Amino acid sequence: MDTQISSIQSSYSKHWLKFLLWGIALVILGIIAIGATTMTTIISIVFLGTLLLIGGVILVIDAFVFWWKRWSRFLLALVLGILYAIVGVMLINNPVLASLSLTLVLGVFYLVIGVFRIIYSLFARFPKWGWGALSGLVASILGFLILSNWPQSGLFFIGLFVGIDLLFVGWSYIMTSMAARALR
User: How many CB atoms lie within 10 A of CB 123?
Assistant: First the structure.
């Protein structure tokens, strides 16, 4: 076990500069995404639509190649593939409306899941239950903020979250590179 850990540490220390460069690139992409949240949202929706369209085509091919002898499985795979493809085309053809719809769903989700987290934490009273309640409160506030600013929030919310995620992933790469460099 120790030799495996030292091997991993050795690999990290050899490639610390790569981690640093990847981290800087991801932080820059995160800043760009946050600075252009509407464009990032639209790109994300079109990308998701493209993935769904490709997945739908694969499922339709799968229905004809593998399931054509079993009617019920063939029909299920075919219908799923067609639904995937239709949703993918809808997202690609109208990314603004799709972002508004997805943001509305996310706002409702965060509001509802936050309330359930609070209720669960209050009733379960597990050790440190306050953190679960706080998590629920934050999710509820996030859901409320999304819904209270909807539909305007639909144009920037997804892009903002993509940008924040890229920023934090990049920062973790940078911190990993600093730790790896210290191992040398």
Answer: 9
Residues 6+ apart with CB under 8 A from 62: 77, 81
Residue 166 CA from chain centroid, whole number: 11
pTM of the complete model: 0.69
Residues 6 or more apart whose Cβ sits within 8 Å of residue 181? 13, 16, 20
Please give the chain's pLDDT, 184 residues, in tens.
556 556 666 666 777 888 889 989 999 999 999 999 999 989 989 999 999 999 999 999 988 887 777 777 888 888 999 999 999 999 999 999 999 998 898 889 889 988 998 898 888 777 677 877 888 888 898 889 889 988 888 888 888 888 888 888 888 888 878 877 777 6
CA distance 114 to 142: 9
Q: What is the token pair recorded at 179?
A: 């730790």
Cα–Cα distance measured from residue 158 to residue 41, given in angstroms and rounded to the nearest whole number = 5
Closest CA to 61 of 41, 82, 45, 44: 82
Q: Which residue has the tokens 């996030």?
A: 142
